[in-house]
Amino acid sequence: MNKLCKEIGLSTAGCLLYSAYVSIFLVPNKIGAGGITGISLGLNELLNLPIGFTTFLLNVPLFIFGYNLLGKNFAFKSGIIVISSSFLIDFANSHLGFDPIGDTLTATIFAGVISGIAMALLFMAGASTGGLDISGKIIKNKFPNFQLPKILLMQDIIVYVFIALTLGTRSVMYAIIMSFIRSKTMDAVQEGIASSRQCIIICENPNAIIDAITKELGRGVTLLNAQGCYSHTDKKFIYVVIQKIQLNTLKHIVNTIDPNAFVTVSSVNDIQGNFKQKSLSIN
Known about the structure:
four-stranded antiparallel beta sheet
């Protein structure tokens, strides 16, 4: 129940921020974007089609053909986000009508930050806003020899060319700036909340610490024999990988059970193997 409530909270916040970034910053300030959103902005300028409804229609075939690649749970959550954000975007544009900020570069920076936070929150909730990432996976599935990054790059190039033809080249320039800021914002959120840490705990009686880590953090540990070269005493070497948001709990466990234990903590750039990446939504 706690996991569900957090997922709903993250999804709601992410959906609202995503809808706000499109309605408040992109549309009034004529800033382009990549993916389905960019195509919808271009079609709105060209044919005056509602942005949210167009986004929804373009996502429908992607979800249909990419359902097996996405997984039932992820597809369901993402589908709810797409429907909700599409409605909110059109509602805001038709009933609120935000004015341009006046400084397009400032609008672009804020659009990148807000969209980055929105996307990070949605990913933590196990969802997304759909888009051309799905089509990229579909193409990759049909043509295994194609590299996914190159597929996504070609899709972005096509969308940016379309944006240049409909909104102008300046919109594409601002869109590229916004995309860069969004990427850095997502990395910052990921590093600040959902990043991983490797911890080494050297102690004499490890069993109680291991039990507490397993029960309270849900993490497996590796236990090795060690010897203190200064004291010439036998010790145990506990190795465990956790997420940054679990670090305070780990320190509390060790300080409570063995205050004399030696603990080191360092960042982890990449993990392969049996490690469940627990995001904010499920901790």
